[in-house]
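Just scan my protein:

——
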Amino acid sequence: MLIKRLFNPHNYIHLLKYMCVGVLLLNLVACGSSSNDLIGNWVSDYDVEPGGRTNAVSVSVDNMGYFGTGYNFSDKTRYNDWWKYDPDTNAYTQLADFPGVARSGAVAFECGGDIYVGSGYNGDVTPNRLNDFYKYSIADSLWSEIDDFPGEARDGAVAFTVNNKGYVGTGMAANTVYLKDFYCYDPSTSKWTTSTSFGGTQRTESVSFVIDNVAYVVTGKKSATVYDFWKYDGKKYPDIVKWEKLSDIYDTNPDKSYDDDYDDIIRYGGVAFVSGDKGYKKGYVTTGVSGVSGGTGNVTWEYNPSDDTWDEKTGFEGSSRGGAVSFSLNDIGYVLTGSGTSDIWSFDPHAEQANDDNGSTVFNH
C-alpha cells in the first residue's frame, strides 16, 4: 500500500504542485531581498529629545549638526526652537530660540562659520509666507536680524553656499505661485543681491547639495513632480552664476540600461547630503514623496559628479516620510524628523547593509 501511495499519479500531481509553489516562493524571496545586495548601512538612534516635526531646517558646521523650526501635525504647533547635535556623544543641546516667529518650510545655510535662517510659512498670521532673515553666531551663541530676503516671501525654497556666499531661490509664494528666482547673500558686505534665476522649471520642495564648490539642485514639484537636474559650478564661474543642465532623473535613453530605474529618484519633500573623501565626494537623495507612486518612500540614490550618473543604495530603513532634514557629519549622512517623527538615522554609504535593531535584515522593495 505504501508503494502504491508513493507512485499514485494523483499524489505525483500534488507533489509537482508543491514543488512549483516552493520554487515560486524562493523566487519571490530572492526578488524581495534583492536590495540586500545594495551598498550602504543605516543605523537608528531612537533617543531623540526634540519633539516630532516636519519641514524644519538643518545645517552642519564643524561636524556639528544644527536644526530647528518646523511643524507638528499632531498638535498643530510650529516651532522656533534651535538645537545642536553632537555625533560623538549622540547628544542634543538646546540653544537660544530662533528669534523670528515660529515657522515651517524655511531655509538655512552656513557662511564663514555662522548660520543664516529665514523665509518659511506661518499659517497663523497674515501674510503667512515670510521673508525675514536672521544670523546665528556659533561663537557667541547669539541671534541677530539681517536684511530681509529681497525676493517674494516664500516657503519650500532651497539654499546652499558657494564661494562663501549664501544662495536662496525657488519655492512657493502666495496664491500657489511657483518660483525660480535666486538671490545671493554676501556676509562680507551684509547685503543681498539678485542672482541668476534657476535654469530649470519653477519648483518647490527641491533638494540641493554642494560638492567641491559646485551646487546641485534636483527633485521638487510644480503642478507635478519635476525631473530636470541642474548645477552651478562656482569654480568655473566664481564671479557670475551660470546654471548648467545635467542628465534628467528619468529614463531618457531607451537603448541603454543605466537609467532604467531613474524614475525612482523623482520626488518632492526629500533630503540630500554629501559623503566621501575630498575629490571623491558624492551626493545622496532619500525619503520624500515619490513622483511615481505618490506615497512617501525610502529609496536612496547616490549621485556621482564625475560621470553624471546615479546608483541606487540601500533604502532608508526608518518609517517612510516627507519633510525630513539632513546633514553630513564626519563623512556620515544623518536624516532626522519628518512626517511628525522624532527619530534620527545615520547612513554610511560605504558599508554593507547590516541587520536592523530588531536583529532582522530589512528589505526595502
Observations:
- The chain is about 10% helix and 40% strand.
- The mean pLDDT is 86.
